[in-house]
Request: fold
Amino acid sequence: MQTFLRQYLGVLRTTIGSGNLKFFYRFFILLFLLILVYTFLFHQLQEMEGREHTWFTGFYWTLVTMTTLGYGDIVFTSDLGRVFSLCVLLTGLTTLIIVLPVAFVEFIYRPWLSAHSIARAPRSLEPNFQEHVVITHHDEVTSSLAARLKQYGNDYVFIIPDLDDALLLHDRGLNVVYGDLDNAETYRRANVDQAALVVATGKDTLNTSIAFTIRNINREIPILATANSPDSVDILELAGCTHVIQLGQQMGQLLARLASSVDSMSHVLGNVEDLMVADASIVDTPLIGKTLRETRLRELTGVTVVGVWERGRFHVIAPDTPLTERMILVLLGTESQITSYNELFAIYNVSDPPIVIIGGGRVGRSAGGTLVERGLDYRIIEQQADRIRDEKHYVLGDAADIETMKKAGLMDAPTVIITSHEDDMNIYLTIYCRKLRPDIQIITRAKQERNVEALHRAGADFVMSYASMGANIILNLLKRNDIVMITEGLNFFRVRLPRELAGKTIAESQVYPETGCYIAAVFTGKESIVSPPPSMKLSTGCEILLIGTIEAENRYLERYGKKT
Reply:
């Protein structure tokens, strides 16, 4: 109660201020003098009409009239008295009915609400709250990160400088500390000296200030910050950041790596230790029409087909499943095995037309650079003339204009990459591109995770979002896990074998039927067994490489607990 009273008085002093406080004093003094004057005039006018009353009665009549109650027990009979009554009534309406309530709300009730909100907003963590992640901004990436941390059993806390935002997140069940981001005391109250990681995803300048402030408190804690500008990377590192990631650049690289319709070679998406995850288009190859068993890919190259993409959906296929031209193989193998696959299929489906990229921002430019590294040509459609870097690779115009699309080569392109930062625009362009070219591969990005499914329904083959990508990057740095994000909602992740599965065969474990996660490899400590047979017995202490959607991953964690 004493704490709340101090907060209320503090807010009251801040809200009222010296100028408003003088107004408050003058208002009540004027009101008191008016009541005295009206009481005196009441007596004078009543005597003129031949009636006498006590001074208390005069005071009573004045208040009853000013507050518009008007009981009617005392009335004037002369015109002068009635005019006086109207003056008292109008004065009361102005002061007691209008000015006083407004002043009460502004200087009494509103400060009380603010003090109540401040008292309700968490301002510190419990002393035993440790090994948590301190997050300095709430956005799409950190919202996804918080959900993943909770999923894996890790603690976190958001530091929010805005009171309303802090209360909103607190009411939604998130861990929050209310305080200024440039105040060292805020981070002390968030137990930053006991935290496992600090994550800053705001503007480059603010991230620099946050890192510099925290470094004065804790010299050892890892600090991860995002950078919008490449020029900010060095400055953030000088301020104390141990990891600086450029989400725009990495998003462009991921989108470009998903372009698999340009040739029949495999394209590496990521790796887990010595194993590589890659995808490969089979258009115009002898693989079409054959079953997975008939292709003999494992015998010929050593790679394992762990599943296929078909219209943006991942499927684990059986050995007798026929392959169609709409399928994109997801391969798992060593570097030499992936190379063997490429040597076998590099002669098929070599595409000369450039890939079309819609949007010349950071993501689009990064995607273009990655395509060049792969030896592929591209054309970027950009509306803003100041973003045009060279005439060869850029087309100035609106992607919604069919002539601009034709000029960029969309009608012949094997793939189009849509990089707009607005999800509604990406949905619009996806539908438009699918209508113009039903057979083209469409790769796009999503700002909000909730729009991923909508983009798939619009016709996108692959969708990537900042939220999932950023959360996975940060989670890898925190847990040092091997998590490979194939595309939005599908990951490879390595975990220690749950004790209840030790001694069982893969078929007996029922991991895939119960969770939807497919065991892609088993690490025994001495060897890596890719695509192990269902009859393989899982031994104590081994690790398994799983592939699954976010929903399958959630089911696995609910069934077997958090990752270790």
Remarks:
- The mean pLDDT is 84.
- The CA atoms of residues 359 and 382 lie 5 Å apart.
